[in-house]
């Protein structure tokens, strides 16, 4: 990712292959290599616009993001244009308070977003919606996986078996 340092980051090709392996048994998911074909850094706004162009104006592009990443979205390139390009689904942890998320949306994105409790989403007169989806919290992060590998501890239940095998075979994160 363009906004991350290079320490302990797998190559873009390795990350793509791990995503492909992780979703290979999911019929409605597919990994895309569109960002690998671009020269230089790839930014989310360019990727979302690519898919909007590829699937046409009648299609709806959704961007699924975790609440932690969403809270840093103001650091992303052209972040306000993201909301005009795609519908957001923000994955929140159980028990996460709606108020801090609403405060963030109003302070950092747009005061025009209004919460609809029946739909559990924020609507905007000109931009796409921001929906909230509470998920079961799994205490797994990429940094935790890298740390386990550095400490030579098992990652068996943190990633799929195919991904674990790939990481071991390639010697990633060592």
From TrEMBL:
GO terms for molecular function: adenylyltransferase activity; ATP binding. Pathway: Cofactor biosynthesis; NAD(+) biosynthesis. Keywords: ATP-binding, NAD, Nucleotide-binding, Nucleotidyltransferase, Pyridine nucleotide biosynthesis, Transferase. InterPro entries: Cyt_trans-like, NadD/NMNAT, Rossmann-like_a/b/a_fold. Signal peptide: none annotated. Gene3D superfamilies: HUPs. It holds the Pfam family CTP_transf_like. CDD domains: NMNAT. GO terms for biological process: NAD+ biosynthetic process. Residues 1-127 form the Cytidyltransferase-like domain. This is Cytidyltransferase-like domain-containing protein. It comes from marine sediment metagenome. The lineage of its organism: unclassified sequences, metagenomes, ecological metagenomes.
